[in-house]
Amino acid sequence: MKAIKHIGLVIFLIGLAIFTALPLLGTYNLDEADFYKIVSNQNIKSEVFINNIKSNVIGKEFKGMQALSPKITKAITSANETHTKNKEWDKKIYTKSSDMAAMIGKKSANGFIANNKGLMWLLTFGLGIIGALMFILPNVILLGSKGIKNDGIYHESATNRGWIGWMVFIFLVSFYLVLYFASEYATNWTLLVDQISETLSGNPAGHWFVYGFMYCVVMTVMAVRMYIKYRHNIYQVFRTTSVLFFQIVFAFLIPEIMVRLQMPYYDFKNAFPLDYDFFFQWNLKDLINNGGIGIFILVWGIVLTLIIVPIMVYFFGKRWYCSWVCGCGGLAETLGDPYRQHSDKSLFAWKVERYLIHTVLLFVLIMTGMTLYSFFTETGTVLGIKTATIQNIYSLIIGSIFAGVIGTGFYPIFGNRVWCRFGCPLAAYLGFVQRFKSRFRITTNGGQCISCGNCSTYCEQGIDVRAYAQKGENIVRSSCVGCGICAAVCPRGVLKLENGPEKGRINPTEILLGNDVDLMELVNQK
Amino acid sequence: MEHVVIIGNGISGVTLARHIRKLSDKKITIISAEADYFFSRTALMYVYMGHMKFEHTQPYENWFWKKNRIELKKGFVKSIETKSKTLHFVEGDTLQYDKLVIATGSKPNKFGWSGQDLDGVMGMYHKQDLENLEKHAPNNKVCKRAVIVGGGLIGIELAEMLNSRNIPVTFLVRESSFWNGVLPEGESEMINKHIKNHHIDLRLSTNLKEIKSDNNGKVKSVIIQETGEEILCDVVGLTAGVSPNIDFIKDSEIETGRGIKVNRFLETNIKDVYAIGDCAEQHEAIGNRRPIEAVWYTGRMMGETLAQTICNNQIEYKPGHWFNSAKFLDIEYQTYGWVFGKKGRPEYEQHFHWRHNKEDICITVAFHKDTNEFLGINTFGIRMRHEIFDRWLSEKRDVNYVMSYLKDANFDPEFYKVYEGEILKQFNTEFNTNLTTHKKSWKRIFSKA
Question: Which of A70, A232, A321, B209 is least surrounded, with the fewest CB atoms within 10 Å of its CB?
Fold first, then answer.
């Protein structure tokens, strides 16, 4: 069994190594016809740029994106410089150079990788999946009988912020940086999944398709790990199945199929304000221009945020969204599960959390207010501030860096819910409802707590669960996503997630159940 | 300002200090030689097993003590002079108190076995025991086998700890079945099996004769009393119960038995000296409880109670209905009310036992065979709601009521398989009753009796 695991690990690492090397490999050879397609698609009027590409790129062979990309950046920069000098504003190119490089790269890739997409898929995704499963599946036997299996978590380099943890951190951060800021380097990755993308939407894959596909694969493989680890705990099994379903069907398949059917790309479960660009002008216009389905999506999006979300939180707590439906939550609960113990439990971290998450919520609301104002009044500015600038700042700082690079990249260091805890504006909104108007709570079982601290240690949201449990108090916290792990790891059966009457939900006590009844009454009545 | 000095920073002493602070402005000092800050002793096992780091066992952050003006003093009290209200420390200094609370907890029992103080022989109680174990049993290369002597809760925890690092364990248990002084037969048998399933070499009805040393004063092997068999080992865990940690008091005027004798107000024979927690011994046992209760929550409750008394609201220590919990490897155990094993079971106590046909899940319900009054329940692998059983015990419900409303008491996570129907069916067959299960009702659960 151990041998299978080790072989699996090696296979996985080979797949990962090939995948990691891909951005710097491959040959690119742009032909003129393809280039003119891009020129006409992008409506490029800059003859400087066109000539520059013609003489420096077309017909030449480039080894790796690192050779091609600078040429394109240079072409755009020099073209724009010329046009700015000549005040030829309509000729300026506003496409980001990395997007342009990605477009050109995609058309011009023609080496071994581009000609052997299926094989390359097997060598990357294929090896990765097979290796990971070989590593994970033997645990059915190796973990022994059913029960909590946290042995050695703080002895392992991978899960105790050791060198493996830091390597994973570097890999994840780099991956997100490429994805958000240097997507031309993802060109080879897109080739791997072209076939799948074409089957689904009819279009070749872009880097976001790679991300979506990878997201599903990673979640599926790591869900297998969850199923094995928590096979005694049906709540965890259901919850894992649910997030997996919503990711694959709602976040991945349906939007792609909608594109095939000439409908707008839309993830029906992605609620505003997590879906922060829902009210952006281009999206509203796109929806309105799409007729019936567009209007339906528009109405659905608004109803989802204003009615469905709060009502569901009232009945079930925010867990119905955060740890049963949400994609970010889904990744956190599968890929992120091995890192849940790294969330900071200090009072200081809680303060930071409240400032940060509510600031983001405020930010998204102001931005959306400005957006809608601009949309209806058809102006670009509000009080002299450009709406687009605010949108760009939000997209960059919150949408890309916070949610992506930090949110997932920092899994091995700060735990798996960095984004959900400190940044997600939807979580902040759900949190208000959960804290003030909900039937959900984690019930503390009388006086059974022995203050061991397993619950706090494994709370991914950094809630000091023990602080409540050892006082006999129920846990009612806006940040709780109801993953249920505190209740699972408790050795004394002290915690239970439940939805019950609002009365008595929050029960501050001084004296716990079990002591003299008179004393409890004396001290607890205020 | 009155100076309250508490010896011992365990759950009893710390709870007391916290509650005194809530109620008053007194000066509070907590003394400990074991650790700088309060930690949860029950969690030491998880540090060794790699579930946690030591810092996670500390329920309060380090700034907590200063913020609440609770002074922490590291030191070992050598003797107490009650006339002049002075503590003398091993380190040489002294401390004056106005009120003294002794909350020094327990220490592992040693019954005079030859070799019991060798290198590699240890209990599993103090922080230092954990460090010692880490030194002698870091892995299964350094420690090729460990022998555990004494089949109680600490013994099985130690077995689980060593098992987590794949160190072979031989577990010597004096009783004919694990913990059968407390557990009824069916449950005890189930645990025996569970232990063996974890590849722990469980030896029932087996006593330790002696521990043998190698040439360097380190443990080499143990000899079994009954068979004379020698078992080679690198670590011996002594887990044959605990007793009050009060050696430093013996020369003072404070009355002691096995523990420090206290009345129901937790006062000793000396004015302004109190004792709480594991080290306190009631003159007379309270109800079915033992005079010395080495249980986490009783320490906490004594702290809660004594804080009232010290802050001029004299209150008797009156623990409510007995309850407890433990975990035997993968099996969770809870108990509410009294369910006796063979030993000490009153003749009127009748049992109903249900066991799952495959899983390690079972319950035992005790009731009065004449009046049908519900006396207590043991559950293994099913979590139960403390509040409900506490109320049923106060209301003196009969067993039929308890069996029919069992769903109200279930505390297992959502979507778990429930067994109330099956349990009731067997009950009906055994006792010729015709009870039906009632659906769980929030109204009943939250109605205050």
Answer: A70
